Amino acid sequence: MDEKKETPKFRGLYDKVNISVKSLDRIIIACIVVIVVTLAMNLRDPGFVVTFDSLGGTAVAPMKYPYNGSIEVEEPTREGYEFTGWYMDPSCELLWSDDAKVTREMTLYAGWRLKE
Q: What is the pTM of this model?
């Protein structure tokens, strides 16, 4: 008796792909490694510390913000003065815009105007 065993024709996911199963498995494993490394790097980066110098007003604690995060912090108070916003320089000439994003560690300075 001459019996020939036939190889099954169904290849599952690899049915229409002209590549070996071993090669596809390597590609899948490489993709998983890239995803895991990317996630690990994102978890390792806790963000940036923004320090607030109230320049004589009530203290504002430093806070961590993620890259491209928006700054949300309570306004300090100072007797006899009105808060004019946060500035990027101690001379309070470069106003920090509310829609600006955090891209590095920095210090922001409180601006004050004498109340009338």
A: 0.62
